Amino acid sequence: MPQTETPGTEVVPRTRLRWWTELPLILLVYGCYEAGRLLVRGDVSSAVDHGLAILRIEKVLHLNAEHPLNRLFTREAWLGVPADFWYASLHYVVTPAVLIWLFRSRAEIYRVARTWLMTSTMIGLIGFTLLPTCPPRLLSPGHGFVDTMAQYSSYGWWGADASAPRGMGGMTNQYAAMPSLHVGWALWCGVMVWRHSRTRAGKVFGVAYPLLTALVVMGTANHYFLDAVAGAAVMGVGLLLAPHVVRAFALLQARVGLGATGDASGDATADVTADVPADATGRAAEPVGAGSPIVSAGCQTSAGERIPRQREPRPGAAAEPDASAADAGEGAPAAAR
Q1: In the chain, pLDDT over 90 holds for what percent of residues?
Q2: 198-228 pLDDT, tens per residue?
Q3: What is the residue-averaged pLDDT of the chain?
Q4: Which residues share a beta bridge with 165?
Q5: Nearest partner of 114 among 25, 4, 219, judged by Cα
Q6: Which of 22, 138, 152, 164 has a beta carbon 3.0–4.6 Å from 168's, enabling a disulfide?
Q7: C-alpha span between 149 and 55 (Å, rounded)
Q8: Which helix (H) or strand (E) holds 109?
Q9: Is the omega angle on the peptide bond into residue 7 within 30 degrees of 0, that is, cis?
């Protein structure tokens, strides 16, 4: 006899990703990030002190790579101009492109990857708030840095104030140097592409993109070396927190759904029992296979019977008390089973 699936016992599929819910979420987080950078300006003198302190620490540790890179980018326009374009635009292009690629081609890891990026971005915003830092390009000329964005501003759309479009430098927080989320986002893109790309070009990009971005942010005098290190550290903390954040969102969704549906746990327990028909006494029948090793779950067919009927033998009973000739076929008594 062909087996049919009991209504309600099918596996509940996992919630599918929808671009019209993902896009507003990403825009919301990015909007909070930009608004936070705009609002949290910090004290200029404190920001300069923090920048000089970082510079002193780097000199003590012999990590001062910003000066030679900045001199090279300032002297060689064929390096400085592309580096300014890189700094001003690629994080707006590559990061969304990798998100879209993951959404379309690697949906199984997209949710955690997106949460990792967003969590790290929020941690970076906390860093901007607690530690406003003057970038090298805004220090006094005596410290030996040249603002390549200002030097080559005629080549691009940015102005002399910041990497923002010309005339809009006042709408961005120029003292949000620590940590460098240019490096952090580039590292996230590199890890995602390196791990999940199947091509050699993808592997090369995954390694080269964050490394070149680190060189660019230092050569253009927008960040210190320790800013880049802090950006990578922020991404590491975000990676550790991402599974917990995903779990917290799942619990929040379950609690919100609980008030509307009575059960938002997402499992199939409620669905299994919701559509199981009740028996003649009004008691809901047990789900198939619950507590019984019999595959037929009590469905037995007597001789001559075309459609099986549910029989639950009572302990010690030799025969069905309501067995009739119709159950047995052509007038013969039905034997107990």
Answers
A1: 36
A2: 999 999 999 999 999 999 999 999 999 999 9
A3: 74
A4: 158
A5: 25
A6: 164
A7: 20
A8: helix 107-130
A9: no
